[in-house]
Design brief:
The chain is built from 21 helices and 2 strands. The protein is an all-alpha fold and 477 residues long. Pfam families: DnaJ, TPR_16, TPR_2.
Length: 477
């Protein structure tokens, strides 16, 4: 071609040819730029559709492609910032907001979103700090009122919220929150773990175990899931052993098993209330009243409406001879469960024991045993009557008179075989019309009955000065 177009004329022809060729390529270059811009806009529109469907990962992929196709597409940065904000990927979101504001400065709506992002980021940090310090209610306020308001898709905040609900023992709400998470991401291991724990603390152990097992199928080496699953398994095994030993009458073994089960998870109140009750019942059978009271009280602190724990504590108080405490517990139990004949029978025993505890112990007053013979009782009475005769206790006459009344009343019961037998059976000898040391029995007269006691052999010294007791109560020799 250089040979054919030599000379000035040839150069002109070549120049025209080059111009023609360049003009033919220019539309193709312009079309390529337009095509690339069109692809970015198309990607942006598709991303918007994904966002409406809450398909954020797919939306981010499309927005990344749109920005790669057109790095100056401001709307793509705005949308990407919003998605990242929603997911609480705060640092990435902040960069995208700032890039948009470089391309389009002064857009107030975007500046507001950036401000909200910074608030949410600060609130999430505060919530974590309060969680670590044990201030669970305040941490939950930060999550609910700020983080999830501005970043509603924040998985980190949702997981933290569930942990806070568990710490606050709001297990039903924890189950609801993890349900929302698993609906969007059914294989989320942390949500499975936390949901299982919520069911565990509600003592719904079968459902809890299924959640732990599902998580372990997805990741057999997940340490927290393994700990939760095998911890539950061991707790149920030890509980069954305790209950089996109690049923077989192996009471001391049952005590050790109940205590071991309680030590496994002291915070598991819904399950431990039954362990405390089981332990209390075994301790009552063993006659260990004080320990039984402690165990039943532990159960009642968890569930104050647990009638069986009240009844068993009443039985334990009978063992420790706390008659008034036994009557109090058993009365409440009987009111709560009026058809339970065992509780009513226990209450009757407690009331009888309380009544007996308040009557005079005539044996103790005379200083004799319950197996003392009539002769021993008479000798004891003579001795005490001499000791406490008012005329021999001039300096403490009032005390002596009171003592003598008591001694005489004791002898009136124990010196009579029929009355003594009735007294030993626990019958109310006050109904005999004597008063037994009360206002109706007064050996010194004063409007009461007069009694004359005859003792063979008399008292040493031939009697008391004055020849008898005031009010007509005398000794005849």
């Amino acid at each position: 071609m250089a040979a054919r177009f030599s000379g000035s004329g040839g150069r002109v022809v070549v120049l025209h040819l080059l111009v023609h060729l360049l003009s033919s390529f220019q539309p193709q270059l312009v079309f390529g730029q337009e095509s690339q811009h069109g692809d970015a806009v198309s990607l942006l529109k598709r991303a918007s559709g994904m966002i409406k469907l809450n398909q954020y990962d797919d939306a981010l992929g499309l927005l990344n492609a749109a920005i790669e196709a057109n790095p100056n597409l401001s709307e793509a940065y705005s949308q990407r910032a919003s998605v990242l904000h929603h997911l609480c990927r705060f640092e990435e979101s902040e960069k995208n907001y700032k890039k948009f504001l470089e391309l389009k400065p002064g857009i107030s709506s975007v500046e507001k979103e950036l401000s909200q992002l910074l608030q949410a980021q600060s609130a999430l940090d505060s919530a974590n700090n309060h969680f670590d310090s044990g201030d669970f209610s305040r941490a939950l306020d930060y999550i609910d009122k700020i983080v999830l308001v501005f970043s509603s898709g924040c998985l980190k905040a949702k997981i933290l919220k569930v942990k806070l609900l568990l710490a606050l023992k709001d297990y039903s709400s924890a189950i609801s929150e993890t349900g929302y998470i698993l609906k969007q991401e059914e294989d989320n291991l942390e949500a499975l773990l936390l949901r299982g724990r919520a069911y565990y603390y509600l003592s719904d152990h079968d459902v809890a175990s299924r959640h732990f097992q599902k998580g372990l199928r997805l990741d057999p080496e997940h340490s927290e899931l393994k700990k939760a699953y095998f911890g539950l398994k061991n707790l149920l095994k030890k509980t069954k052993s305790a209950e089996d030993n109690a049923a077989k009458g192996k009471l001391r073994l049952a005590v050790e098993d109940f205590k071991a089960a309680l030590a496994m998870d002291p915070s598991h109140s819904a399950h431990n209330v039954h362990l405390h009750l089981g332990l209390c019942k075994v301790l009552v059978k063993l006659g260990r009243g004080k320990d039984a009271i402690n165990s039943c009280t532990e159960a009642l602190e968890i569930d104050e409406e647990l009638v069986e724990a009240l009844a068993q504590r009443g039985e334990a108080k009978l063992i420790t001879e706390d008659w008034e405490g036994a009557v109090e517990d058993l009365k409440i139990a009987a009111q709560k469960s009026p058809q339970d004949m065992n509780i009513r029978e226990a209450l009757m025993r407690a009331e009888k024991s309380l009544k007996l505890s308040k009557r005079k112990d005539w044996y103790k007053i005379l200083g004799v045993s319950r197996t003392a013979s009539i002769a021993e009782i008479k000798r004891a009475y003579k001795k005490l009557a001499l000791q406490w005769h008012p005329d021999k206790n001039v300096d403490n006459r009032e005390e002596a008179e009171a003592k003598f009344r008591e001694i005489a009343a004791a002898y009136e019961v124990l010196g009579d075989e029929d009355k003594r037998t009735r007294y030993d059976r626990g019958e109310d000898v006050d109904d005999m019309g004597m008063g037994m040391g009360g206002g109706g029995f007064n050996p010194f007269g004063g409007g009461g009955q007069q009694f004359t006691f005859h003792f063979q052999g008399g008292f040493p010294g031939g009697g008391f000065p004055g020849g008898g007791f005031p009010g007509g109560f005398g000794f005849n020799f």
